[in-house]
Structure formats: structure tokens, C-alpha cells
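Good morning N.,

You mentioned wanting to compare the apo and holo forms, so I went ahead and generated the holo version with zinc ion. This is what I fed in:
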Amino acid sequence: MAKSKSLPLIAVEHDALPDSLGPVERHWAKANGFSGQRGRLLALPGEGGTISGYLFGMGKADDRPALLLGQAAAALEPGRYRLAGSFGDPSLAALALRLGAYRFDRYRKPRDPVAFDVVEGADAAEVSRLAEAAFLARDLINTPANDLGPDAFEKEIRAFCKRHKLEIKVIAGEELLKANFPMIHAVGRAAAEAPRLVEFTWGKAKDPKVTLVGKGVTFDTGGLDIKPSAGMLLMKKDMGGAANILGLAHAIIDAGLRLRLRVLIPIVENAISGPAFRPGDVLRARNGSTVEIGNTDAEGRLILGDALALADEESPELIVDMATLTGAARSALGPDLPPLYATDQELAQQLMTAGAVSDDPLWHMPLWAPYDAMIASKIADVNNAGASAFAGSITAALFLKRFVKQAKAWVHLDIYGWAPEARPGRPFGGTDQGIRAVYGYLKQRYR
Ligand code: BES
Ligand code: MN
Ligand code: ZN
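and this is what came out, ligand included:
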């Protein structure tokens, strides 16, 4: 196949037009007021009204997002490009281009792709695995609940397992009660498609045990404590934790990290019908504790509680869960900075650092024990919702913590999973969060 020749995309630092530019291009840049301002894209004139390439402004180093080049990839016309100029770390640049060129085209005619020649010096395998991981998460989140209910989501995970040659185990419907997952069953039993717990493992049994758990609510109506329409509108993304856990699992497996991976994904639709669980119900959790339902919209922590209890039973070295768990997380830190909770302070710092270098930021929040009183119940061991609206992300994390007793360490990410506005490397819509941060940390520890 003849490869059409690529056009140069020349990265330009603030006030530093490269010497390689000819006099015409220099004048053109000046006439257009282009001096490498952060995020500016300028087409260069070629012969006969053509475009001979592009300049892209990298701005100053001190306020440059690591994935800035993703903004260029999102703005370019379809075609093939080769990165040139002053773009810093080649792997990060190549990843930025891939992540920024993402589009969700399942429901419209796909646009011709924006593609790039291999960036010299980049670790191509690592770039591909991180791009694939992010795209997997984004595609799953973007797919609406009519095409990604519990049945379809299970099918997607089956396809994932087939691709990686893994065995999958699924416990669904009434079987959840027999196998002692009462909260997963209670939350999901009102929906047309049965609740289920999906599990797979990878790696050598003797390697350190790392278990990933993801909230897989394919749609969250709020249940009988129904959400108002504005709050329900985006709730196809309530399986964003599970989607990101799958992306992370892909990166770990593809890289062959030396750990024994276990993935647990409770999948439910939080729907309304006769069998729906109710406010005031008391559920008995897998670990034997009792949970009073203060609010059926606090469903994520219930299904995670049972899954975390299972994860905890084999005393793994590390449990990481991801969940679109609370609106309060976004109130506290906004959509782009997920709260990170951890039982180990040093681990939290290392995760924040790994996130910062890969433009996958996380922020360490406290498991503030005194706030446990906010989720006390007068008739059961705990309530699933706080009596007040205070510290909602913290009290949700404290609720989860009750189900982790034996694991050496536990990390919880309260993610948003959505980019309300496009950012460099992060187009609008379903978005990956936490994958590069956790992967970057695990890679250091288990490679
Ligand atoms: N899935 C939501 C949390 C959510 C809402 C995430 C909006 C991102 C954006 C979760 O199930 C929920 O409804 N949480 C409630 C808990 C409350 C009832 C204690 C919340 O945050 O309001
Ligand atoms: Mn909810
Ligand atoms: Zn939810």
C-alpha cells in the first residue's frame, strides 16, 4: 500500500522559531502573530495554495500540560503528519498525539483519521498500550445504556478476556444470593437485565496479589430516591470505574508486569420497578455487617462493598478500586482531579507523582475517621448515606473502608469519568482517569 507522504507538525517553544524554517515561513509566522504561544496551530503555505505543514505553539515550559500536543492532534485536518521541532519527551509526545486524536464515532460516519508517523525515540509499544487502555475506557463510557446494559457490558468483558486468553467467571441473578453477594443483588434486582459479578485473573499464582475493583452501574436512575433529570442525564457513565479498571488491566497484562492480577466488576443497573430496594431497607452485606439504606442513590458503595469484601478475603498485597461514586468529589475538586484515598500515605504520594508526570492527576484526600459518625445508623451497623451533605466523598470512602480489613493496602479513586470540556489529550465526553497514574506506579513496583 502506497503511504501518502506526511506533513510536518513542528512544535515551537515560546519565542523560539526553529532555525530550520525558511524565510517565507518565518515571515508568514510573523505576519500571523505566531511566536509559539501555547496551543496555537498555524498552517504553513505551500505551493499553489496548498498547506506544507503546521506550526504548533508549545508555550513556556513552566505552564505546559504534559499532553499539550494532544490539542494539535484534535485540531488538525484528517491526514498523516510527522512530529518535528521541540516536543520534549518522545514517548509522552507520541502518547499525547494518540490520545488527542480520539473520536467516538459509533453513531456517525467516521471522519478520516488524523494519523502520525512513528515519533523517533518513543517507546512505541508502551504508547500503544496506554492509548488502547484509554480508548477502551472512553468507548465504554461513551456508549449509552441502551447499547451497554448489564448483558452487553458482560459481553464486552468476555471479548476482553478472549483477546487476552483469560477465563472469565460470572455470577448472575439469584446465584448472587447463593454465593453471598446480597448487596449486588439488592441494587440490581429491579432492572430488566440481571445484576452480576464478573471476575477474571491473570498472572502467576505465586506473584504478589493485586486486585482491581470497578463500579459497573450501567445506568443510575437513583432508584426510588430518583434523580432529577439534570442529575440523571449523564448517568450512562456510572460504569466509568469499571471501564477504567478494564483499561488499567489491559495495560498491566500487555506490559506483562510481575504481579498476580485479579479483576472484580460488579455490574448492575440501578432501576425502578416493583422489586426495587427501598429507603429504610436493611441489607446484610457479604461480610455479615448490616447496612441501613438511607438513600437508594448511594448504590455504588453497596455493590462495591460486596466486591471489596470478596477481594479482601485472600489478603492481597494491594486492592485498587475506581468508581464514579459521589457528586461531592466533583464539588470538592472539580471534574479533572479525582480524589484519591489510601490506607498508606507513602503509596498515596507515589500515586500522585505517577499521575502528575503522565497528565493523569489525582489528589490525596483523608480517610478522616471522625466523619465515620456521619454514616452511623440507629438500627444497623452503618447507613449507606450521610445524614447531612457534608464531606460526601470522604464518607463514601469511609463506607468502603469497612469492607477492607486484611489487604496490606487499599486505594480508592472517586473518579468523574467525563470531560465536560475538551482539554489537551482529552476530547469532550467519556474519559480515562487513573489508568496512567496507577499503571505508572505498578510498573515501578512490579516490573
Ligand atoms: N453515580 C452517582 C455519583 C455521581 C453523580 C458521580 C454525578 C458523578 C456525577 C452516585 O451513585 C450517587 O448518586 N451518589 C450520591 C450519594 C448520596 C445519595 C449520598 C451523590 O453523590 O449525590
Ligand atoms: Mn447513585
Ligand atoms: Zn451511581
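The chain has two domains: 3-122, 129-446.

Happy to go through it together on a call whenever suits you.

Best,
F.
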